Amino acid sequence: MRADHYVAALPVEVMRQLASPALRAAEPRLGALPRLVVRWMNGIMFYLDRDLPLVHGHAIYIDARALRPHIPPLQYPGQALAIALYLEGGIRGCEIGTVMFGRHPDGTETPAAMDLVRLAIPRRTYTQSHIDYVIEGVSAVAARASELRGYRISNEPPALRHFTARFEPIA
User: Fold this and answer.
1) What is the three-class DSSP state of 106?
2) Is the pLDDT of residue 145 over 70?
3) Would you say residue 121 has pLDDT above 90?
């Protein structure tokens, strides 16, 4: 597989087991994983500029900023794409980007490095017709991507906002 970046977004405990010597050589900061202190629901996300084998995947990641460059990162293009996919065809995805990683403990917010939407595909669960349906839904949303708008957070919890925040479209 060829891409500009390769993304890993995993719980730290899982990444500790998967960080091979080749992966640590590609991203030397991963050498600190054994010493990293974590709390419940901490994770790690990093980007590589070359493909390194990790595990066989079961997800597709859509780059929401590339699909919707007209939506500023702080208007949550990943969340906007996830909502559009659900409204189009009931396709459930998960935003992995600014909603998940953009807020800092002091309450400030900065854009995440990327805004992605993850579509999980469990093995041996879906038929080709299911996959074709998702492709048609994603294609329909992509065809009208320039018409879609960003969102703002109307209500968010003090922690783990990506699970239960509420959003409103920006007019």
Assistant:
1) coil
2) yes
3) no
Tell me the C-alpha distance between 167 and 154, whole Å. Answer: 5
CB-CB contact of 95 with 119 (8 Å): no
For the chain, give every domain's residue range: 6-48, 59-169
Spatial separation of the C-alpha atoms in residues 103 and 89, rounded to whole Å: 30
pTM tops 0.70: no
The CATH fold assigned to 59-169 is Aspartate Aminotransferase, domain 1 (3.90.1150)
User: Which residues are 148's β-sheet partners?
Assistant: none
Q: Is the pLDDT of residue 60 over 90?
A: no
Distances (CA, A) of 54 to 15, 38, 49, 85, 143: 10, 22, 14, 28, 33
Does residue 163 register a pLDDT over 80? yes
Distance in angstroms (rounded) separating the CA atoms of residues 65 and 100 = 15
For residues 150 and 76, is the Cβ–Cβ distance under 8 A?
yes
